[in-house]
Amino acid sequence: MMLYKLRLNDLNNEKPVRHYPSTDTNPCWIEPNEFTPLAKSTRRLLRDAFDERFFCRYYDDAKMAKTSYVFGMQQNLHPIYKSPRLNLNAVILLVCKQQRLGIREACDKREKVHEHIRDQLRTLLNAVANPSDAVDPPPLSPTPVYSELEAMFAPPQRRSAAVVVNQMQRCVDEELDRWKDDPMRVERLESGAPESVLSFWRLVEHRKYYFFLPRAVKVLFAVPASSCQIERDFSVSGSMVTSQRTSLSQHNIDMATFLNRNGEFVDLLECEAIK
Questions:
Q1: β-pairing, 29-30 with 17-18?
Q2: Which SUPFAM superfamilies does the entry mention (predicted)?
Q3: Considering only CA atoms, which of 200, 225, 205 is closest in space to residue 215?
Q4: Is the predicted pLDDT of residue 147 greater than 70, yes or no?
Q5: pLDDT digits over 18-74, tens only?
């Protein structure tokens, strides 16, 4: 959710930016009219690049169809952030407004994105579920004896695979709908921090509140948020991403590596404040 908060506050040209030496007890803000032209341009370019790579699904129909909605599916199965409707809608409306879209059109695109997320979530749930999960085994009964006319004109009907699939789909949809309105809360540690998502769903699965959703959670939350850790583990220097395995340019990689190992050249505490 930090991405939405970043877009709503720090990358919003109409809002001030928090000054780096400010604290929670003594906050200090830089108003937009105090920015230098360079700072304004940098903020705008960062906003546009961020929208193009993350929020484009809310205003570009072509990218809406191609986007991977892993983040959205994770959010839908998160016990705390599954329904951040108010602030999330504010971010979507802000992005669409800067793309010259009206409120009604922005709301329509938001609903389309939600439909894509639900469809992909249903696809995942169907993939992790077995057809036998939703079908009770039929009771044993004696084999009937059919007459010649019955065998010729009224053969016994077999349960088709489509019936099994439809029944499993109804079970999946029922769990999704029930989870959407479920007021179940996470446990809090002594420090006040919430338990992890996997711990929450482990308990849910143990108590058998849901059958299919915990399986999807194991898949979704096993997806790494970033490949940086893997890149660092297998990179040449052992602590920096190489240019062959990232989208960063070669000179940026070299400069970042140099400054990381030679801190005496640039003291961040002595840099001038961004205005």
A1: antiparallel
A2: Ribonuclease H-like (SSF53098)
A3: 205
A4: no
A5: 887 888 888 888 888 888 889 889 888 988 888 888 888 888 888 888 888 888 888
- 227-238: b (≥16 Cβ within 10 Å) or e: eeeeeeeebeee
CB 29 within 8 A of CB 16: yes
pLDDT at 139 exceeding the cut of 50: no
Find out whether 57 and 105 touch, Cβ atoms under 8 Å: no
Question: Quick one: average pLDDT of 188-208?
Answer: 86
The Cα 233–Cα 174 span in angstroms is 43
Residue 137 is predicted with a pLDDT of 44
Roughly how many angstroms between the first and final C-alpha of the chain, as a whole number? 27
What tokens does 164 get?
Answer: 């099994």
3 state SS for the chain: CHHHHHHHCCCCCCCCEECCCCCCCCCCEECHHHCCHHHHHHHHHHHHHHHHHCHHHHCCHHHHHHCCCHHHHHHHCCCCCCCCHHHHHHHHHHHHHHCCCCHHHHHHHHHHHHHHHHHHHHHHHHHHCCHHHHCCCCCCCCCCCCCHHHHHHCCCCCCCHHHHHHHHHHHHHHHHHHHHCCCCCCCECCCCCECCHHHHHHHHHHCCCCCCHHHHHHHHCCCCCCCHHHHHHHCCCCCCCCHHHCCCCHHHHHHHHHHHHCCCCCCHHHCCCCC
